[in-house]
Amino acid sequence: MYRYDSYDQRIVDERVAQFRDQTRRYLAGELSEDEFRPLRLQNGLYIQRHAPMLRVAIPYGHLSSRQMRMLAHIARKYDRGYGHFSTRQNIQYNWPALEAVPDILADLASVEMHAIQTSGNCVRNITTDQFAGVAPDEVIDPRPLAEILRQWSTFHPEFALLPRKFKIAVSGSIQDRAVVQMHDIGLEFFRDEAGEVAARVWAGGGLGRTPILGTRIREHLHWQHLLTYCEAILRVYNRHGRRDNAYKARIKILLKALGAEEFSRQVEAEWEHLKGSPNTITRSEFDRVAAYFAPPAYRELPPHDAGFDAALASQPAFAAWVRRCVHAHRWPGYRAVTLSLKPGHRAPGDAADAQMDAVADLAETFSFGELRVSHEQNLILADVELGRLHALWTEARKHGLATPNVGLLTDIICCPGGDFCSLANAPSIPIAQAIQQTFDDLDYLHDIGELELNISGCMNACGHHHVGHIGILGVDKDGSEWYQVSIGGKQGSDASIGSVIGPSFAADEVPGVISRLIEVYIRERHADERFVDTVRRIGSGPFKEHVYQTRIDGEPARA
Amino acid sequence: MREASVPAVIVDGVIVADEWPVMPLPVLDEAVRRQAGKVVLFRLTGEQPYPAERLAMMEIPQGRVLVPLPVWKVHGGSLAGRVAAGEIGICIDTHELVEDLVGSVSDLNAFPVIAVRFERFADGRGYSIATLLRTRYGYRGQLRAVGDVLRDQLFLMRRCGFNAFAVRADRDLAAALQGLKDFSEPYQGAVDEPQPLWRRHPRAQA
Q: CB A155 to CB B187 under 8 A?
């Protein structure tokens, strides 16, 4: 993975000093609330319901075991012993004291980490495929260009105060796992006819109040032009994006208002001036950064392992875990492993400090001391030998990290919701937990098969509810909390946005609604058909009919 | 805190007396606009709030002065002598189009000073205006940030080509100077240093 040189280190150290002084001036009354807000936000610091919330950047989701131990240390020392891994592959702490944040940042800087641009109206953490570098269907490893984009976007002076937040995702595989179409800019790398790395450029995707998939604005962009082309897009957006209404300020609204053709024309016109300027990426800089992502020292292994095969045949619990949590790898004899952070008894994506330490140990023992965070809010060990999977499983189980539910209904993507977030209309974590408890029968869960259930506590859609096969959205109606359910959303190369099935439900009705949706699926599904495939084939009609046929559990009428 | 009678400004990293007042525009009796229940704080890019007849009635103050772009567009033709004398600068608001300024004059460098006025510091459009003036349109004179100009944005502003800062009058100018030193080696090329870090210095190898 990438490691800081003296320049990277100096930038984060200077950031710590800068933020320490800004915090001091704020506490001394020299900076007003309004003046401090964008400063703290661009350092990931929110003022939330109970305390500040600090979001720490995990660039494109990559962590070393040493960094993970520091995250555990911070959870212990400054928080209440846990952290929350977010849908942008970052980690959030819910209970730090404002005065302590400069010290937390200094601790982070000591392990080459920071909280720069994890919030605010600027370019946010760049995200990518959690299996980057190891996925069999990968064409281009997106990480070197993600790192080059990270450096370029860090304190970019022209784009520090955009109309609204700005998210970039990169992907280099056949199956898109970075949801590039859901981003302000999505870059899909491929190898062109000349054998060169190029990108298809998507722009104007996003969730939130107005969910919309991105538009492909360029079919072919040579990798050297990545930064200047992004500059052109951002300049058009910075100048012409709406600032009068926060709900209409994302680039997707500008793209829609101008029309894709006119938007692209303006970007291309801007790029004519920028093309070839010094931010054009050189081969030597690309090679320098790419060298940090060279494959680790893999062993030459046979494609099969007798011990693994025997354990698989004799231990159903291990076999269930392998089926859900172990993924193909491009190197023979290796596998990628997902450690589920969705055990059902705590908030999805939460990890205790001891678990973080344990994961760091596991990464060192089994996976070259590196790990990743997925946007599904789980942790990944990317390079595990086939013959050591059973030992890993045994260890992971001791720490509650081996729930065999990855990709299943209880692997819920969930925002922090109304329990923590001051934007939320309604809690989301208790809903996730109630659903997880309703579907705690593993056999039934495996029979239902792959199903993505995403929950957001408000229309800002941090829980990606629009692209859940089942999406749940907390809404506020006359001061009380209700939940809107949608079906048919999907992430990936054939992404779609779910459609709402009808009137909203009370919190305690939601598990019953999910049960009814599943009943229709079980009744109607063809062999090998996932829930979302059935929805796409038969439409939402039969689901609506069954859900709304009778009241659920005799609860009061729906809003 | 400074005395209102002795306005000062940072130019090229030094505090000097401010000799370029901005010509005041009349306060518009605009109705408070709301979007989604919130007061609208920013004008849309390209918006023209001043009626032409009001602009036509205005008188340009004597001596050195920064003329707001809408006033310049109406009165520019009669100011040629004063431009030649070097006593006219321009003040452009963040919602105004830099192309309108460029199109209204044969040589931008006839203005010793161009000011970009930030009604709110959080309005990043001024950064693109400055960048374009310095790069695409080749402006070499003093580029000044005026209005809601605060220490914590100075470093970014300088990188976008500003070299003068009329820091908000209620703030300590000397302290604000520190803001220009927040970072020593930025990553990306920008106006003040077009070369990105990797072209400026050899960097570590894996």
A: yes
